[in-house]
Amino acid sequence: VRETVTYQPDLTASSPGHERTQFTQDAKITALCGGWQKIRTKIEEASIERFSENARRGREGFEAVLEMSRRVFGEERERERAKMA
Q1: Looking at the DSSP assignment, which residues form a beta bridge with residue 74?
Q2: Does the reported pTM lie above 0.90?
Q3: Do 48 and 26 contact (CB within 8 A), yes or no?
Q4: Strand partners for 83
Q5: E-assigned strand segments in 12-85
């Protein structure tokens, strides 16, 4: 398995104060089983299914962390504003 994950600014969907990040994930899965094509295909299919499920879970976890961060930073901003008033 060769996996590549890239995070970069999403310039097409960002606006000042609402920056976005583009997340790209790619995997190349190859089973090496000599001439046993059926077995190799089954291993590759199972690996792809597992990778897809793990990618989905990872994305959901990452989004949950970002949402918590937004909430905490928003609360902190409100506390700072209340101090200034």
Answers
A1: none
A2: no
A3: no
A4: none
A5: 21-28
